[in-house]
Every structure is written in C-alpha cells, then in structure tokens.
Amino acid sequence: MSTAISDDTVSRCDWAGSDPLYQQYHDREWGRPVIDDNRLFEKISLEGFQSGLSWFTILKKRERFREVFFGFDPNRVAMMGEADIDRLLADPGIVRHRGKIVSTINNAARVLEVQAEFGSLAAYVWGFEPHAKTRPAAITREAVHAMPQTEASKALSKDLKKRGFSFVGPTTCYAFMQAMGLVNDHFESCFCRAEVEAERRAFTRPDATGR
C-alpha cells in the first residue's frame, strides 16, 4: 500500500508515521511550494545535516537549529567564524558535526552570491523545476523509492557544486526539491496530493532578475 491510515483516520503517505510532529510536517509543509530564501537556505542546510541520519532526527532539532543559525538568514550565517563553530560543537540541541557546520557557513556565502546573480535564491532554485512530462504518471511509494535522484536533481547538484556549495549531492537535492514543492511526490491516495497540486498550479514562479 502507498498510504497509511493514521489514528485520526486520514490517509497519508506512509512515511509520515504516527508521530504528531512528523504528521504535521507532512500535512502542512512537505511538497508545498516555497519562495522564501531563508526557508530554502534552511532546507539546504538541514538536508546536509541529515546526511547519514533520519529526517525525523533533524525535524526534532529544527527549532534549535533555527535559533543557533539566526533563522537561517544567509547574511548573518555567512559572518559566523571559528568561535561560533566551537560554540555550536558544544550545543547538544543540534547535530554536532564540524564538517556540516562549516558547510552551512560556506553555503550561506554561496547563497549571497546566487542572490546577487539571480535576484534571489528562489529564482535560481525554481529554474531547476522539472517539466511535468518528465514526472511519473502515478506517484506511488514504489515510484518514489525507485527515483532517489532525478535528472533535475543531478543538474541542480552539479551546478551547486560548481558554485562552491557542499553537502549537495543529487539525492540530497532531490529530497530538497520534494520538500520545497518543486515536485509533488505525495502519493496518489494521500489527502495532501490534490491540495499540493492546486497550490503548485496557483504558485507564481519567481523570475531570475539577474539573467
């Protein structure tokens, strides 16, 4: 089966499980189009921290991540230095991994460069939205699990790396695209599927003013 019936009798994608926090993330956030640069940078960063871990682990720590990384304002994060890194390495509320912390600070500086070139991080990211014709006709659990990365996520990953971003492999980029609404991977029988599709149809894609 592609969906699970929860205690509240709602049919969801089965990965949402039974924890209220995870269900809320699934119901209200995952797959709904995002245009806010800070939220996009947050997701890029947290996907990097997730590497080797579960998203639920990161989700439970997300509020603390937001506190220590100044709401993922790239202007402020890009200014963080060694003292900040040492402070974060001592903070049990986040994932204490030097490489991932350093990557987040580096990526903040790269985001500022992207904003200068394209007008916003959103304009850059949405330029990699895959064409509808490249998507599977039916979004089932098997279909999603069979494509942990796509040509679009490979292209985004390659370009991000060329620009100096780190912890942005094609699988990570596809998870980012799923979460930020560049694709709608809610299963066909999930109650969110139609809602998200309607939001994507009504969504105004940002223009890349730097092009």
From TrEMBL:
Q: What is this protein called?
A: DNA-3-methyladenine glycosylase I
Which superkingdom is the protein from? Bacteria
What's an example of a GO molecular-function annotation for this chain? metal ion binding
**What keywords would UniProt list here?**
Metal-binding, Zinc
Q: From which source organism is this entry? A: Devosia enhydra
UniProt cross-references to PANTHER family, sorted A to Z: DNA-3-METHYLADENINE GLYCOSYLASE 1 (PTHR30037), DNA-3-METHYLADENINE GLYCOSYLASE I (PTHR30037:SF4)
What InterPro entries does the annotation carry? Answer: Adenine_glyco (IPR005019), DNA-3mA_glycosylase (IPR052891), DNA_glycosylase (IPR011257), Tag (IPR004597)
What's a GO biological-process term for it? base-excision repair
Q: Known Pfam families for this protein?
A: Adenine_glyco
Chain segments annotated as coiled-coil in the UniProt record: none
Q: For Zn(2+), which residues are the binding ones?
A: 13, 26, 186, 190
Q: What Gene3D superfamilies would the database entry show?
A: Hypothetical protein, domain 2 (1.10.340.30)
